[in-house]
């Protein structure tokens, strides 16, 4: 028996023993989730004491399947995607032991929702150009500024925040990364109504917000490096597709519409659908390959290519669906202003999908910026002229 097989079987026994001792049907959900974290069965690749067992990431799906089959409660993955997919790995990589103990457990159990305070009205794609300031005052930092396009800010207890702490150095070097309590005085969240009619995003105003230095993540002035680790995780999360089956997701929705609307079929539309189906399948298997790579190490710039593909396919497929539906595709079912917890492309109508997909090439890094990242960091092409000549690309990854 190989070492890998032994580890896998031992993990299965751990999961079985845990489920035997904590019947999901008879255990209060929050108590169950806390116990699962303490048993190291939350993120098995995380260290012991922080929700894991120090095992390969590739074993996590197997654990999740065992718990799902047993009817175990979920930990609000849809409502806390920023916390689970972005904040947690960044805290693990750069946080102190005290920060890991304070934040990781309630984050994983869903007790504390997280949001991301990065983008600003004048610093979206050029994140390093942000203007939000943090000024040291003894053991605290006083933060003033405005953030925008903030998902889940209206539900969030904490935020990952990047602010400028030194305006006298090149812009990439003067940033610091913080963990911000959204319940603190001076934090104001306002809804942003989108083209869909909903307020999925928010703008956040920070006025004299005091953040203790113990909530600083990483060294002062090292915020750009920490933020890049977060962004790599974000792009992988957006672009990987979450294990979409063959013919699933948006291409599955459009394929169903094709079958249901024979009167709308033309050779040109058929050709477009076939090409998009092939591209969607290529993206799906590429996402699987990227996922396998991630289980062996850390996310890299390849996630930018996947996110680029995701945005383009969603926009082209949603446009094709509207064409296949004819005048029915112009109808919009509900323009009520609500503040949803997330995006549901396949569970909504065609009008919603068409409008919401327009944001895919903006959120998580604009397609224009991601093309530069792919060209320079993946393909190794020479960089274009940079306005900030003080920081070459090779320095940004350090």
Automatic annotation (TrEMBL):
Location of the Acyl-CoA dehydrogenase/oxidase C-terminal domain: 221-379
Cofactor(s) listed in the protein's UniProt record: FAD
Pfam family, one: Acyl-CoA_dh_N
Span of domain Acyl-CoA dehydrogenase/oxidase N-terminal: 6-111
Keywords: FAD, Flavoprotein, Oxidoreductase
InterPro entries: Acyl-CoA_Oxase/DH_mid-dom (IPR006091), Acyl-CoA_Oxase/DH_mid-dom_sf (IPR046373), AcylCo_DH-like_C (IPR036250), AcylCo_DH/oxidase_C (IPR009075), AcylCoA_DH/ox_N (IPR013786), AcylCoA_DH/ox_N_sf (IPR037069), AcylCoA_DH/oxidase_NM_dom_sf (IPR009100), Mycobact_Acyl-CoA_DH (IPR052161)
Xref: Gene3D superfamilies: Acyl-CoA dehydrogenase/oxidase, N-terminal domain, Butyryl-CoA Dehydrogenase, subunit A, domain 2, Butyryl-CoA Dehydrogenase, subunit A, domain 3
Domain Acyl-CoA oxidase/dehydrogenase middle: 115-199
Record-stated family: Belongs to the acyl-CoA dehydrogenase family.
Protein name as annotated: Acyl-CoA dehydrogenase
Organism: Actinocorallia libanotica
């Amino acid at each position: 028996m190989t070492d890998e097989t032994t580890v896998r079987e031992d993990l299965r026994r751990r999961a079985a023993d845990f489920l035997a001792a904590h019947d999901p049907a008879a255990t209060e959900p929050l108590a169950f989730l806390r116990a699962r974290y303490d048993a190291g069965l939350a993120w098995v690749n995380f260290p012991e004491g922080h929700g894991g067992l120090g095992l390969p990431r590739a074993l996590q799906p197997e654990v999740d399947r065992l718990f799902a089959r047993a009817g175990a409660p979920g930990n609000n993955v849809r409502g806390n995607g920023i916390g689970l997919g972005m904040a947690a790995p960044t805290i693990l990589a750069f946080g102190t032991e005290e920060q890991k103990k304070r934040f990781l457990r309630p984050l994983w159990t869903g007790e504390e929702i997280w949001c991301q305070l990065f983008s600003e009205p004048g610093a979206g794609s050029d994140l390093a150009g942000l203007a939000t300031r943090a000024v040291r005052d003894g053991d605290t930092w006083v933060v003033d500024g405005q953030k925008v396009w903030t998902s889940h800010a209206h539900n969030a207890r904490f935020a990952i925040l990047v602010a400028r702490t030194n305006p006298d150095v090149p812009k990439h070097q003067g940033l610091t990364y913080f963990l911000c309590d959204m319940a603190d005085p001076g934090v104001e969240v306002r809804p942003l109504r989108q083209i869909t009619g909903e307020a999925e995003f928010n703008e956040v105003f920070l006025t004299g917000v005091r953040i203790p230095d113990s909530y600083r993540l990483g060294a002062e002035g090292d915020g750009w490096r920490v933020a890049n680790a977060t962004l790599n995780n974000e792009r992988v999360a957006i672009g990987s597709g979450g294990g979409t089956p063959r013919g699933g997701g948006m291409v599955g929705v459009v394929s169903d519409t094709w079958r249901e609307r024979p009167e709308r079929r033309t050779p040109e539309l058929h050709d477009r659908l076939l090409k998009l189906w092939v591209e969607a399948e290529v993206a799906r298997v590429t996402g699987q390959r990227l996922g396998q790579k991630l289980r062996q190490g850390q996310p890299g710039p390849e996630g930018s290519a996947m996110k680029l593909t995701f945005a383009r396919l969603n926009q082209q497929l949603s446009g094709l669906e509207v064409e296949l539906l004819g005048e029915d595709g112009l109808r919009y079912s509900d323009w009520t202003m609500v503040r949803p917890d997330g995006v549901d492309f396949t569970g909504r109508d065609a009008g919603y999908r068409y409008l919401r997909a327009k944001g895919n090439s903006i959120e998580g890094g604009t397609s224009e910026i991601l093309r530069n990242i792919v060209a320079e960091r993946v393909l190794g092409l020479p960089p274009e002229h940079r306005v900030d000549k003080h920081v070459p690309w090779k320095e940004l990854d350090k």
